[in-house]
Amino acid sequence: MSDKGLSVVIPVKGRVAEMRRLLESLRPAVDACTEPVEVIVVDDSGPADAEAHQDTCASLQARYLRGPKHVGAKRNDGVRAAAYDLILFIDSDCLATEHLLQRHVQTLRNAGESVGAVAGPTFVQGVDNAMFRIMSRSKLLNSAFEWPAQARQVGWATTCNLAVRREAFEAVGGFAERPLTVVGGEDVDLGLRLTEAGHAIVCDPEAVVVHDKSSIESLGTVCRRLITYGQSGQWLLDVHARRGRPKLNRVSTLSATAVAGPLLLPAVAAVLLAVDTRERLGDDAPTVRALAESIACAGLDWCFDLGEFIAAWQLGRPDRLFTGFGWTDDPAFVWNREPAKRYGG
Questions:
Q1: Where does CATH 3.90.550.10 sit in the chain?
Q2: DSSP code for 98
Q3: Higher pLDDT, 335 or 215
Q4: What does pTM read for this prediction?
Q5: Which CATH architecture has domain 3-212?
Q6: Residue-level pLDDT at 213
Q7: Are 180 and 234 a contacting pair, CB within 8 Å?
Q8: ∠ CA(107), CA(112), CA(116), 5° rounding?
Q9: For residue range 24-38, what is the model confidence (pLDDT) as tens digits?
Q10: Where are the alpha helices (DSSP H) in the chain?
């Protein structure tokens, strides 16, 4: 049996400066926690970055482990090395708030035995640039980070801010170690297996993590993340097949149009873009800036559909070109207020 306390597990590759900032932010949180805390960093960086991480861990009282490539496998290694009965997962490009650890410990200790995990919200730190304004309209990028501030209970949660009872985590087999992509989908899969096994995931809106703004600063970063999210959805359909839902995949629709009636392609694309732009505009006045941001957001969100399209072929499942994953459409999600940004429902 594990000792009573909290083990913080952080997977990393590269991100030397970000990791230092995270470990620095954890020091006040460790001091504010009433139970013993250890911090474990699991890394598969190249030699130069690995040496830098080791130096950072030595100076900021964290344990350093070498780990495998996949993020889920890294987290599993961290849990196996952990000393305590509660585990907090946080990502290397995040910052801890002062009372983060105490909130997770307190909420889990006070919860009934049916509660297997606590999710806290993650907020992207403010940055006022065009990309941030555009993607603030997206249902897909970062929306799941904020759900624990809007719900009492969720069916899964992002593992940039999730605390679990080690016993429940081990009972369901931990993270999938070889999903389709190096990172993406393993957190959803874990959450679904926990809830299906009867281990509820409750929310603590006061257990806050801050996410580094670099995740939304560049076009390339945004596109890669959305494609990965789409790919992970198709992989999740392999392991949770009953959650498949009919979906109008934009990329699949345009591909089918290009084959069946290429002259119709511009018109079909314009209609799809107009519908998606209107949705992202919401209640905003249709100013030039609002329209431009909504159009750009709609176009970038199609990267998610592109990821689904690519993965359907990667997995040999072209029959799923018009099938999406049901991300939140189950009773495990109990909302305090219906979120403005909810996808897959």
A1: 3-212
A2: T
A3: 335
A4: 0.93
A5: Alpha-Beta Complex (3.90)
A6: 72
A7: yes
A8: 70
A9: 999 999 999 999 999
A10: 16-32, 47-59, 71-81, 100-110, 130-135, 143-146, 166-171, 186-196, 219-239, 250-260, 265-281, 288-314
- Which pair of structure tokens corresponds to residue 109? 């200790």
What's the CA gap between 39 and 8, in Å, rounded? Answer: 5
Q: What is the share, in percent, of the chain residues with pLDDT greater than 90? A: 81
Q: Tell me the C-alpha distance between 212 and 18, whole Å.
A: 8
CB 36, CB 5: distance < 8 Å: yes
What is the rounded distance in angstroms from the CA atom of residue 60 to the CA atom of residue 40?
Answer: 11
Q: Which residues pair with 115 in a beta bridge?
A: 200
Q: Which residues is 42 bridged to in the sheet?
A: 11, 65
In degrees and rounded to multiples of 5, residue 141 shows phi and psi of -95, 115
pLDDT at 130: 81
* Digit-coded pLDDT (tens) for 216-226: 667 888 899 99
Least confident of 134-138, 196-200, 232-236: 134-138
Q: Which residues contact 316 (CB under 8 A, 6 or more apart)?
A: none
